[in-house]
Each structure stands twice: as C-alpha cells, then as structure tokens.
Amino acid sequence: MISRLTRALIIDDERLARNELRRLLKEFPDIQIVGEASNAQEGLEQIQSLEPDLLFLDIQMPDKTGFELLEMLDKVPTVIFTTAYDEYALKAFEFNALDYLMKPIEPRRLADALQKLRQQEEKEKQQLLGRGVLSENDQVFVKDGERCWFVKLYDIRLFESAGNYARVYFGQNKPLILKSLNALEERLDPRVFFRANRKHIVNLRHIEKIDPYFNGGLLLEMKGGEKIEVSRRQAVKFKEMMSL
User: Which residue range or ranges hold the HTH LytTR-type domain (predicted)?
Assistant: First the structure.
C-alpha cells in the first residue's frame, strides 16, 4: 500500500467517459482526482498549475491528440492512456506509458494498471531511500552492450531521453542506459544539471553559448556542439537560477 495519495488528472473530451472513470476510481481511495480537462489545451494548463502525479489521458481529442499534449510538456507525469482505439498502443509505449486501457474501461484492467502504479512508486521510493543525490565529482558506471565506462558526472554534458532509455553524452561517446530521464533527474544535483525540456537534461558547466529562441525560449549550444532548446517555461526557471 502506498503511503501517500496519488494526485490524478483526467483528460478526455467525452464528459460521460470522464464521469465513468471518476465512478470507477471511487474504489481506489489512494487515488485523488485533482481535476479534469476536456481538451489538450485545458489539460496543459491544469498540468502546469496542479502538477499531478498521474494522467488518465485520452488520445483522440478535437484540438490536439494526447501524444501532442505530452510533447508540449517539460516533465511528463506517469501516464495511463484511455482510448477507444487499439491502433495507438505501440506509439503509447514510446511515451513510457504505464498502461493502455481500452474504452469502455473494465474494472479489472483499471485495478491491474493501478497495481502497476503502486509497484512503480514503491520501487522508486526504495531507490531514493537507498541512494542519495550524486555530486558532480561522483563517478558512475555506464554499460552499453559490451562496452563499459567509469565516468565522472562532471564530464557528462547531456542526458537525452530515448524511450525507456537515456543516452549519455561524454567525450565522443553516446551510450544508452536503462534509466528514464525522470529517474535520473531525481539523483542529479539540480545546481549542476538542468531539465531543459521533456527530452534533455544538460550539465550547466558544459554550456558554450546561450541564444534567445522561438516563443520566449532559449537555445543552448553545448561544448560538444549539440543544440538544445529550453522551453519557454523552463527558460524562466533557467534565468532565475543563473541570475545574481
């Protein structure tokens, strides 16, 4: 049993579907519904203001799809897709979805999905209890296939999301590790590593150049030549953090 409430947001353009999911979730007292939205734009605004732990997210909506909504986020909560269409299942898991529920949602399938959520949260909790935040001088072991490295975090200039994996940039190397960007962010020192957008965490020590960018964002050029966009929302945090 998880020790805290999981704050959930329902995003679905069908009012009856939202009501039915609310009804089903009454059986799970550890799930707190903090809001609901009928389209992607409303969903974006509520995610930014409410910061939910979990999204119940429809895919086909009038303005933007659920996938397009996730692409607008800097940090994606845990996602359970709820949809009447089965052809999006493969793409859903490219977004690290916890589960994919077909409408009408079966109570048993909902219970299975929430059991996965409990297991995931317990695993993350144990990892955090067992491991503290890493400093830039800590050395980490990186393995990709048959190749292995011991790398100081100071020398890693960039982490890039690749589905369930993350690509680690240091020197001329770009190995993949089986860690999500969210899990990495929990362990990295926020004074050194900054979440630029949904797909990238950058090492502030390795920024070569900063330029204004589209729609109030920033464009970072890393010492390795990579160009990383900082979203408008994250650009505000970046400027606050880097100012005197």
Answer: 142-244
Q: Give tens-digit pLDDT for 139-175.
A: 888 988 888 999 999 999 999 998 778 999 999 999 9
Q: Which of 76, 111, 130 represents a domain boundary (last residue)? A: 130
**What average pLDDT is seen over the chain?**
90
Residues 229, 197 contacting (CB under 8 angstroms): yes
Q: What sign results for the dihedral spanned by CA atoms 199, 205, 208, 210? A: positive
How many Å apart are CA 109 and CA 106, to the nearest integer? 5
Q: In terms of pTM, does the model score above 0.90?
A: no
pLDDT tens per residue across span 1-15: 334 689 999 999 999
Local structure of 175: helix, strand or coil:
coil
Q: Which of 92, 109, 130 is the last residue of a domain?
A: 130
Tokens, residue 212: 């204004």
160, 221: one domain: yes
| Token pair belonging to 22 | 């609310």
Domain that holds residue 184: 139-242
Domain assignment present for residue 1? The answer is no
Tokens at 152, concatenated = 């100081």
Residue 30 has pLDDT above 60, yes or no: yes
Q: How many residues does the chain have?
A: 244
DSSP state of 94: H
Total domains in the fold of the chain: 2
3-state secondary structure of 59: coil
216 belongs to a structural domain: yes
